[in-house]
Design brief:
single chain; 330 residues; alpha+beta; 2,3-Dihydroxybiphenyl 1,2-Dioxygenase, domain 1; eight-stranded mixed sheet; 7 helices; globular
């Protein structure tokens, strides 16, 4: 399919000392290296705005071959920019996280909680909550099975995940499972960003994403939302889901809190540790770069080969969120 991909990569920064533990972590989720490359400090600054040598690994889950998106790019920085988002709450400005589906959310929860208790991992895990697919559906019971999602959030300095399990329904193409993954999870199916003020025109009109049902308000009054997004009493937000045309996966969910949330955008960009950027793949990176510039994006880098030899550029969108664009090699 031509046009912009679903969310192509989730970019995760680490240190040279953290490389092997990070590769082992992602392998447990089914992501393994398929290519790698290196840039010196000057080359990295030209492409990502951070002056440090970097070695990157593109990690693929078996589901990436089916969806064409949902990869992880592990970026090993010689000198990281900063410590990244760390334990920032989900709806702080500049926050971002990776959504994946699982066929056994209890198994995933136990893996993380055991690692916290027995191995000292610095992660937080929310309780598992239920979110009905249709809040107006008749009450479920023994003979009328509940239909909806079970969700939990895992947050820590290395990465930030929403794990979701479908119950009594399916959505073909929105995440793929494989018996080859040690934990039963899919590729990255959607990403989430948090703006200072709600505005999705740039993503719709410049990147060409399409609204999936329009924007709506939500917040702490809904139990599942309150627990997973770690909301305090009275906190509400606006959210809109955007998708790439004719693609069943790789959605972008754009949030904007209605309260004066801390601003973490400076710690959510290339060079930061942990989950720091997302990328899209496009047929013609040069043409999109011109459109991004014309729309008021800043810190737009030249279109240059990235560490994998692909045409690429980076920019900061008008909402202050940083991005990387990857061109397809025909």
């Amino acid at each position: 399919m031509e046009g912009i991909s679903g969310l192509f990569e989730f970019l995760v920064g680490t240190t040279r000392e953290g490389r092997e533990p990070a590769l082992r972590y992602w392998a447990e989720l089914g992501f393994r290296p398929v290519t790698w490359g290196r840039l010196d400090a000057s080359q990295a600054e030209q492409r990502y705005g951070h002056r440090s040598a970097v070695t990157s690994y593109r990690l693929a889950h078996p589901g990436c071959a089916l969806s064409g998106c949902g990869y992880v790019r592990l970026m090993v920085w010689d000198e990281p920019r900063d410590s990244g988002l760390g334990h920032a709450r989900p709806l702080e400005i500049g926050s971002r996280w990776m959504g994946v589906y699982t066929s056994n959310i209890l198994l995933v929860r136990d893996a993380f909680t055991d690692a916290i208790v027995n191995e000292g991992w610095d992660f937080e895990v929310t309780p598992i909550v239920r979110a009905p697919l249709d809040p107006a559906a008749p009450p479920s019971g023994f003979f009328n099975r509940w239909v909806g999602l079970r969700e939990m959030f895992v947050i820590g300095p290395e990465t930030r995940h929403a794990f979701i399990q479908r119950n009594n329904f399916d959505r073909p193409g929105f995440g793929s499972f494989s018996p080859a993954t040690p934990l039963p999870v899919t590729e990255g199916t959607h990403g989430n960003i948090v703006q200072p003020h709600f505005a999705t025109e740039f993503y719709r009109e410049v990147l060409g994403l399409v609204s999936q049902g329009g924007a709506h308000d939500s917040g702490w009054e809904r139990e599942s939302t309150r627990v997973v997004l770690m909301l305090e009493e009275g906190q509400t937000f606006t959210v809109e889901r955007l998708g790439s045309p004719n693609r069943p996966s790789g959605f972008l969910q754009v949030y904007a809190p209605h309260w004066n949330a801390p601003d973490r955008r400076a710690h959510s960009r290339a060079g930061s540790l942990g989950l720091s950027q997302f990328s899209y793949q496009v047929p013609h990176a040069g043409g999109l770069r011109d459109a991004v510039l014309a729309a008021g994006a800043t810190e737009v880098t030249d279109r240059l080969p990235n560490e994998f030899g692909e045409p690429s550029f980076s920019f900061v969108a008008p909402d202050g969120i940083s991005w990387t664009i990857v061109g397809r090699i025909v």
